[in-house]
Design goal:
By secondary structure, this protein is mainly alpha-helical. Among the domains are: about 190 residues, no CATH class; about 80 residues, no CATH class. About 65% of the residues lie in helices and about 5% in strands. A 4-stranded parallel β-sheet has the order 1-2-3-4. α3 packs across α10. The longest helix has about 35 residues. The radius of gyration is 30 Å and the shape is globular. The protein starts with a helix and ends in a 5-residue tail after the last helix.
């Protein structure tokens, strides 16, 4: 296992024997972590190191050799520094590594750097994969009969709260629970979405490997090689810095890949522990307490690129995306509500909703009824989905004015299903959809606006000097922008709901006057009377 670190550069063969190569790669994988890692991480790192080297060899065998040389020298130098050795071998290895890089062409250096960067990404995937499996093993060991759930701290905290103040008060406090993580703006973020997509696909392929047979595993490896090769051939950073509107794609990507489906799972986990076998057949206990926020496209403190126009564009991007997602999920849930009216009778409330839908649009209801003639719950829900699509286009006659009206319609369907005996349909997929709508509304994330207190005070001074409309002289561009920001907040709230933009942060606040300035500017932005 020490051979990779012991033999001199000029003694290394160009192509290692298979068994020897495996040992060398295992040692290299262990050394790169700096610790004695679990076997599964070492095995996966070895796999990825082998694949990176294979891609490099296919591109140019000489590059694979240079990669090996640089990796070897780096390992020796790192080991020497980590162990606190002041030996000549470590210094020679570092100097050798620098010399090797200096002698390479810019193109070769670029590919080597990309190869090392790709491998570091892959090493992170190995760690994440191990953590997921470790959490699953921990989950499997939990005693479902015990009230102590080491995996879910929310239930443990709630049980303690019940013990301390009683179930009624604990439930009242639970209803007020709010978890509000905030996505901050990172205009210097360089990694491309294309790179993130490749990393995510490789992670998915790694997750599949333990469950594959020999033929499937070979195909799995082929697809890994394809993604790794693309990583090496793709510039890892964007040529241009992303605009604030483009930065919003980061939030949308996280929403699509994680948040939208994970959040209701968290709520469901709480219900499973609190309701036991009744979970999914009775009204839920867990409220929709997750309400993400974002500074992207709204944090203008020191960032001149964030304007009122940008805030409107970002909020619209969020609105369209969440509505498209909810429309697709509502349609999916609705198409699976195939209970016929003879077995699951619709409630009077549901039939009243249907009548309202017919009055609103015979085109939509006729189309839904043609598909679901004797499945009223399905027909009503499919019309709800179509109304969401109309909300995107802002078709006044059939659009939803706000998320609360949409959720109210879903709950009508839910109550009808439950009254008709289809409780698992009512409190299963339909409840998940309601949770998602309650969590993300028509805004996806709550935009938080931030501005420096000095900007507010200067804007007010400008207005007092020149008049609100600049009658006594032209207002400064910053003053106009400050007023337009408040108008943008009003527009966003009217279109996406109050929760879409209900927080305003004043940086460098020194007194109550700084807060009063914001209220005064908001009044001036919307007041119609002239000075």
């Amino acid at each position: 296992m020490e051979e990779l670190l012991n033999f001199k550069r000029e003694d290394r063969p160009t192509i290692y024997p298979t068994a020897e190569e495996a040992a060398e790669l295992a040692q290299a994988a262990t050394m790169l972590t700096g610790v004695d890692v679990p076997d599964s991480i070492r095995a996966n790192m070895t796999l990825f190191l082998r694949l990176v080297r294979k891609v490099l060899k296919e591109y140019d065998p000489r590059l694979r050799d240079e990669f090996d040389h640089i990796l070897h020298d780096s390992l020796v130098a790192t080991r020497s520094e980590t162990e606190g050795d002041d030996d000549q071998e470590g210094k020679d290895a570092f100097d050798d590594c620098v010399s090797t890089i200096d002698e390479m062409s810019l193109e070769d250096e670029t590919l080597i750097v990309r190869a090392l960067t790709a491998y570091f990404h892959l090493a992170n995937i190995c760690e994440e994969n191990y953590r997921v499996h470790a959490l699953r093993a921990r989950e499997a060991s939990v005693d479902t009969q015990s009230r102590e759930d080491p995996v879910n701290e929310i239930t443990v905290a709630y049980d303690k709260l019940v013990d301390e103040c009683g179930r009624a008060k604990a439930h009242a406090l639970l209803e007020r629970l709010e978890f509000h993580p905030v996505f901050t703006a990172h205009p210097t973020e360089a990694r491309r979405k294309a790179t993130e997509g490749k990393i995510r696909r490789i992670a998915d392929l790694l997750e599949q490997r333990p469950y594959l047979g020999p033929t499937e595993r070979a195909e799995n490896e082929r697809r890994m090689l394809q993604e790794i090769e693309a990583l090496l051939r793709t510039s890892p950073i964007a040529i241009k810095k992303p605009t604030p509107v483009q930065e919003a794609d980061t939030v949308i990507s996280i929403f699509d890949s994680t948040l939208f489906d994970t959040v209701p799972d968290v709520y469901r986990r709480f219900d499973d522990w609190e309701l036991g076998d009744k979970a999914g057949t009775v009204p839920p206990v867990c409220p929709a307490f997750f309400h993400p926020g974002s500074w992207i496209g709204s944090d203008r403190d020191g960032n001149p690129n964030v304007t009122a126009k940008v805030s409107r564009l970002v909020s619209e991007k969020y609105r369209v995306h969440i509505l498209e997602t909810l429309a697709a999920r509502t349609n999916y849930v609705g198409r699976n509500l195939t209970m016929d009216t003879d077995i699951t009778r619709p409630s009077k409330e549901l039939m009243n909703l249907w009548s309202h839908q017919v009055e609103m649009s015979e085109v939509l209801t006729n189309r839904a009824q043609a598909i679901s003639a004797s499945e009223m719950h399905r027909a009503v829900t499919m019309v709800i989905a179509e109304r969401l699509k109309a909300t995107i286009a802002r078709t006044a006659d059939i659009m939803y004015n706000n998320a609360d009206d949409y959720i109210a319609d879903l709950k009508v369907v839910q109550r009808s299903l439950a009254a008709g005996g289809a409780v698992r349909e009512a409190y299963g997929p339909m409840q998940n959809l309601i949770w998602q709508a309650e969590t993300f509304g028509f805004h996806l994330v709550e935009m938080e606006f931030r501005q420096h207190s000095l900007v507010h005070s200067r804007a007010l001074e400008d207005i007092r000097e020149h008049g609100r409309w600049g009658e006594r002289g032209k207002l400064q561009p910053m003053t106009v922008e400050v007023l337009d920001t408040f108008r943008a907040i009003g527009t966003i709230q009217r279109r996406n709901g109050v929760k879409a933009a209900r927080r305003y942060i004043i940086s460098f606040t020194k007194s109550a006057q700084n807060v009063a300035d914001v209220y005064e500017l908001a009044r001036l932005a919307f007041a119609h009377e002239r000075d």
